[in-house]
Amino acid sequence: SLQIISCSSLSDSISLLSVDPNDITPTHLIGHSIDILLAEPFFVSMTLPWHSLYFWYVRTALDPLLSTDCAITPGSAHLMGIAVKFENLHLLKHSLGKVEEFYLTPYDDAVMESIPDINKSLPPEDYSLWEYPSYPLSGVQTLMKFDFTSPVPKDTILREKGSWSLTTPTSCHGIVLWMEYSTGWTPVLLDEPIFGHKLNWSSNQNQGVCFFVKEDYEGEGSVGVAYDISMNTGTGDLGMEFELIF
């Protein structure tokens, strides 16, 4: 950054602050307000896509220093989801039985005992889905929106509930989740889904996956998915539950 500023002859106009955003004070700004807040919501500590919502909390900490017409980019984020069928990834939650003449019964028992006997989804897990072939069973859904132009509401539960239909009654293995940001340009995290064709995921970001244990019920395919998503703004925790509709 220093080299770019120097080569652009902007050393007298631009100053870099080597402090965490949460630690910026009016003294650092020499009496000025922040007119533009520009960031890429990516943090090394991220494991699931929505952990990048930490940006919203950083923006909130800076709120007293922002001008009344401060331009904030990204101005919002959306939690997106799509129902999928995997070629192999869902088998991680299935019994192995006998492999290479070895009986893996103890492992199978431990896995199955940890899985509830319900039609609801398991907690989300982190995967790089460009490595695991999957097929779309629905269109892309917007599940929750986050408005960064306003501070994080204090000690509030944000909640969204709804449902969407699958393209045809079938066995649904899980819901894939990712975040999209309003930045004026849209990075392609997922090419337009084409039913019957493999999904083409970006290799630059991981996705969250909520697996279904019961993929069908008495041989009938599921026809839709219901969702219940909540965010505790006091802790920043995002809770989610998906349930197959038969």
TrEMBL record:
InterPro entries: SAM-dependent_MTases_sf. It comes from the Eukaryota. Gene3D superfamilies: Hnrnp arginine n-methyltransferase1, Vaccinia Virus protein VP39. This is Uncharacterized protein. It comes from Amphimedon queenslandica (Sponge).
